[in-house]
Design a protein that fits this description.
With 183 residues, the protein is mainly α. The protein folds into two domains: 1-41, no CATH class; 51-179, no CATH class. The chain has six helices and four strands; from the N terminus they run ββββαααααα. α1 (51-70) packs across α4 and α3 crosses α6 (148-179).
Length: 183
């Protein structure tokens, strides 16, 4: 490319889906202005699905959130799940980034957070709402109340597990965003 200058055309060969092809491109100028430059520029486009597609997408996203939550309880996927999860620290940083990117990104992350919290809340882990429902169903199945000491013990174990996860996620986020700055 030494013989080329900004504004000149160049032929680029590429491989897509196993098929070779060529394209002619016009070289731009680099920041210094005299060096020919070939790069890729992204463009943002709005996607406005119809009602049917939007409904389909909402069910897909809900399913993905359920899958992500279930992966917390699978020992083989736990480490990967925790790496992708965020605590209130990471959520604050990511929400601020989304807000600075624009209204659409901000609304997207707010919707995803609401969906994630809703899914987490229906997990059958006491003291979450899903855990309370599970305990009620067990009592109805047994046709007698669960002894208070047992119920409190189960809730204590569930709370300890949840707070341990929250603590670990907060620690990971502080390391990610504050100490190493890799977030």
């Amino acid at each position: 490319m030494a013989a080329k200058k900004p504004g000149d055309s160049a032929t680029v060969s590429y491989l897509r889906h196993g098929t070779s092809d060529t394209a002619t491109v016009v070289l731009a100028s680099h920041k210094q202005g005299r060096v020919p430059f070939l790069g890729v520029v992204s463009q943002e486009a709005q996607y406005r699905p119809n009602v049917v597609k939007a409904t389909e997408l909402s069910f897909q996203w809900t399913g993905l959130v359920f899958v992500a939550v279930v992966q917390f309880f699978n020992p083989s996927t736990f480490a990967t799940s925790v790496q992708g999860a965020r605590s209130v620290v990471g959520i604050s940083v990511e929400t601020a980034r989304a807000a600075s990117a624009g209204v659409a990104d901000y609304l997207y992350i707010v919707a995803l957070l609401s969906l994630s919290l809703g899914v987490m809340n229906i997990l059958p882990i006491p003291p979450l709402d899903g855990g309370k429902i599970t305990m009620e169903l067990i009592e109805r199945g047994m046709r007698r109340p669960i002894p208070r000491a047992v119920s409190l013990g189960i809730s204590l174990v569930g709370a300890a597990l949840l707070f341990s996860l929250i603590g670990y996620l907060m620690y990971s986020d502080v390391v990610r965003y504050v100490i190493t700055g890799t977030g």
